Amino acid sequence: MTISHDVAGDGPTVVLLHSTVCDRRMWDSQVPVLAEAGYRVVRCDFRGFGDTPVPDRSTSDADDVIALLDALGADRVALVGASGGGRVGLEIAAGRPGRVTELALLCTAWPGRERSAELRAFGEREDALIEAGDIAGATELNVDLWVGPAADEATRDKVRRMQRHAFDVQLAATEEFPPLRTEPDPAAVTARTLLVSGAHDVIDFRETAADLATRIPGARHVELAWAGHLPSLERPDEVNALLLDFLRGA
């Protein structure tokens, strides 16, 4: 199965990998800007998100993305990943370094660290709400944690709709399959790398960006003073400018 995706523009390929709070719609403000700037922009939905159904077996998001790129004839690409999508991007860039030219990780997740007390408490509260059947409450819990103060109400509502859709799709599944993941070695990444964190984000992701900046050769770390966990949604114009400068080698 090819995961759901769309393609816009022509030129070097840039692949946008969504946060697991969202789906590929989170990149609505980036796609036209990157396409107009001369890139072929690919964005996709991981399994169980957006228009891609839940898996019927244990699968790898990284392998799904590589299969999509093979189908599109995209041998070498730039990857832009947000949160959980950043983890997937890092897995690809470390495991298949010859295929990734640039790697931009926005508030990326990382499997190699223990969760903070704040994140553990969030997970316990989310589980309790879902167990009680309060999916609206679990959705709002996610919006409150992950959307930063720079976002307007329309952005909060967009995240709310994407997260609720993910809950509805995933909770309707009759069986759950654990994902197949590898633990990437950051030192194996050869792509030019930008790490972005938000000053209002959970400490886990801020520390992850700082740590990875020391472990990925030549990586640059930028912390945005105004940002929460989803800067590309919170202030898209500023993130678009940052991404274009990075992709152009500035």
TrEMBL record:
Entry keyword set: Hydrolase
GO cellular component: membrane
Coiled coil: none
Pfam families assigned to the protein according to its UniProt record, in alphabetical order: Abhydrolase_6 (PF12697)
Highest taxon in the source lineage: Bacteria
Ranges of residues in domain AB hydrolase-1: 14-241
InterPro entries listed in its UniProt record: AB_hydrolase_1, AB_hydrolase_fold, AB_hydrolase_sf, Epox_hydrolase-like
GO function terms (MF aspect): hydrolase activity
Keyword Hydrolase: yes
Cited PANTHER family: AB HYDROLASE SUPERFAMILY PROTEIN YCLE (PTHR43798:SF31), MONOACYLGLYCEROL LIPASE (PTHR43798)
Name by which UniProt lists this protein: Alpha/beta hydrolase
Organism of derivation: Actinoplanes nipponensis
